Amino acid sequence: MSAFTPHQGTYFAYWLTQTGKLQNQISRTMAAARVDMNPHQIEAACFALKSPLEKGVLLADEVGLGKTIEASLVMAQKWAEHKKRILLVVPASLRKQWEQELQDKFELPSIIIDSKVAGRLKKEGLSNPFDQIDKIVICSYEYVASQKDWVQLIDWNLVVFDEAHKLRNIYQNSSGKRAKAVVKATKGAESRVLLSATPIQNNLMELYGLSRVIDEHYFGDAKSFRNLYVNRQKDKNTLDDLKQRIQPLCHRTLRRQVQQEGGINFTNRYSITQDFTPTDEEWSLYEKLSTYLQTPDIQAIDPKARHLVSIGLRKILASSTFAVADTLKGMITRLQDKQLLNEESLDDLEEADDWIDADFGETDSGDGRVEKLKQEIEELSECCRLASEITHNAKGDALLVVLQKAMDMTEQLGGQRKAVVFTESCRTQQYLNTLLENNGFKGRTVLLNGANNDARSQSVYREWFEKHQGSARISGSKVADMKAALVDRFKSDQADILIATEAGGEGINLQFCSLLINYDLPWNPQKVEQRIGRVHRYGQKNDVVIANFVNRRNPADRRVFELLHEKLKLFEGVFGASDEVLGAIADNIDIERRIYEIYQHCRTDAAIEEAFNRLQDEMKEVLEVREEAARQTLFNNFDRDVVYNLKTRRDESQDFLKHYERVLLDLASAELQGARIERNHFFYQGNRYDLTWPRAEENDSEFFRLQATEHFLAWELVHRAKKRMPDAAHLIFHYDRLSDGQYAALQPYIGQSGALQAINITFEYNRGRSRENRIVVLANTDSGEKLHPDHAEHLLSIPAALAAGVPEIDTLSFGSWVDSVVAAQRAATEQQLDQYLEQESDKLERWAQDKRQALMQSVEELDEQIRTFKRESRQLASTAEKIRAKKELRQLERKRDDALSEYHEAKKVIEREEDRLLDEVSEKLELSCTVDTLFTIRWTLQR
């Protein structure tokens, strides 16, 4: 028998889904996600959702604080509000990672739209592939720009831009074409969220550019912004003014603030370097294949793919001779089948997406070329023979050495003897697996790559699937579930080493492991940092050890390591290289391409040294020209009380979540006959249900929560209870049956009776797009004493039973009481809307002022020219010169008068536009209110 009545079940369902305080909504959304809750992330999400009138925000938290989670929270909240037209624009390389993050942590369905998917959808009858009503659309910047005419046909509720600094040059006519196309495609969106840890890289105009992406009415034009702020940025008052203006637009939290709050303890990273010297056979293969790649007129490689094939072969060459041998075998077969080499030839690397095929007919012209091609096939065959004859690699031997040293160091630092080994080559992955299996790790390795079609991985997956079948651990995505199964195996005591490729390592969190080994070291520092971020991220409890290899026979390899280790400081310290540093370099120097060119063109050690010295000098110059002072002033000190605010937010969120979980459990108790309710979980029909995702994973149970996609048990109970319209009844509340805590304020009412009414107040504004509903419980005693609304709510949380018969209840006593409560709620809502109006009015007023100042500047410049001309004309000697000067002066004065006339006309246009925008804002804030009575009961409180 349930501890609660149907009336209470209805109240619990409405309480759980009410939309009152924004921070409670976000806390509830986060509670339904498979992610640790941190107050700075709730703070950021609240900032992004705080006003229905704002067109968007910039979330600029420092690297490592989880901007992905912040944006996902915003998307999940929009989804919960049934605003499901969401577009996520990201760098192409991050599309899959975002898709998996949304699915794994928030169970938000999404679809990556590219040319192939769009073609398939059109064949299936969907004329506009972006018209997805039940999935978040994920696209690259390039694809959105190229398909802007289709994208802008959708009325997007929300557009999220990851790495949004890619749009900061939109104000420039020359370099902002793609950014303009992307922004134009999303112009009609209700709201935008921009994510970037480096919003300003080189000058303050980039901030102006990002403001234009969000709201074209935030600042005036580029000229007025430059005059107001850029030209006067050393003036403290000017920067204070700018800081004040962008506070509603930008939100930034620093790692040191989060660390001070105590929510996240960032651990250190330490570096181990293992030297190795290739054997003569390995070095001979390297020199021979490297010389071939440096040939200026290679015939075997498709000219359109020359760069990508060459750089791919160099990566494979640096990885292992086993990878080289098998790759060259496939290339030679391809050439013998009369197909040129392109990116498809590099099936060993899991990086590229779209390949262009070419055959000999397109480029083959003349016997000379055919003969040269034949010669190249012989060269590649010789390289293949050399590689095939090599039976072991010096770097593989070095791995066995460094692995023991690194594991010992990790164990001393408190970590487990587990290691993640990253390689860029699938074939090297197989070689390393065999090497480790034969050297003390038999049966203790796990492979993670883009396919995982090997027998062991498939076996691990089947075992995992059978174990978790029917539970919330099964996501329905084979790729996501395969990764989950393999990571679980690595986490267990059955495995010690995870060997991962780049594709395999995307989107996984390995905080339980604190040793990472870069068997192959990428040339791109962002990729290196992303790898390290798999283990060194918030949630990591131990210091992290990072092991790298240095080829002492190859000066270019040595300099690449020096660049990443000593110059960018990726491998040591609390945070490694910051987004500030990586972003500044990436925006100005294509390091990967530059390193490739050094390998490709430098034929002597001296030339290599000189080229790397030049590259380091350029990097140093780029970092020195950053306007650190402006950035720090604008973004790093918005609020001196950030740490205090974060602590307050954590306390408030935890208090709310405790209450929220308690009500969820009470809902289960009220609605599920036969459920066995425990303190923080329950059992029903043979299944266990936990209220938090860590407990659900630990117990392999169902995760009982109201998640974004409404298809689990909790939502079924909510919908059932809200459909119910309970009749008047007499409820006997049993105070002594409270299992969790006491309501001291209710003790004086034990033995008394009275009437109680639960009402649902709903406010709508923003043309019906924004809705808030609040549950209010009113109760009085038979003697006429009114209970405080909080105490009335507590009454409904006490176990109760229905008394026999239908009671008579005086509902008239609630009439004027309800009116006064609704009036008070309306006044509070209107006060909040007034704040939104005030903020919008201030913004538009400043925008109009900027525009007027820019127009007046032309008049003032002409006035200054006139004054200067008058001074100079007085010094003229001859009458003829003075007459000519007077005529020129009259022309200048007429030009000034015309400019002044234009100013007055344009001023009227600006004022009319300001009035129109204010009218639009006022219309959005028109408030409507409805009140529904959920039920009325007679109550008695017994001990």
From TrEMBL:
Coiled-coil portions: 837-920
Domain spans labelled Helicase C-terminal: 402-582
MF (Gene Ontology): ATP binding; helicase activity; hydrolase activity
UniProt keyword list: ATP-binding, Coiled coil, Helicase, Hydrolase, Nucleotide-binding
Superkingdom of origin organism: Bacteria
Keyword Iron: no
UniProt cross-references to SUPFAM superfamilies, sorted A to Z: P-loop containing nucleoside triphosphate hydrolases
Limits of the Helicase ATP-binding domain: 48-217
InterPro entries on file: DEXDc_RapA, Helicase_ATP-bd, Helicase_C-like, P-loop_NTPase, SNF2-like_sf, SNF2/RAD54-like_C, SNF2_N
This protein's record includes keyword Transmembrane helix: no
Pfam families: Helicase_C, SNF2-rel_dom
Name of the protein in question: Helicase (Snf2/Rad54 family)
Annotated source species: Marinobacterium lacunae
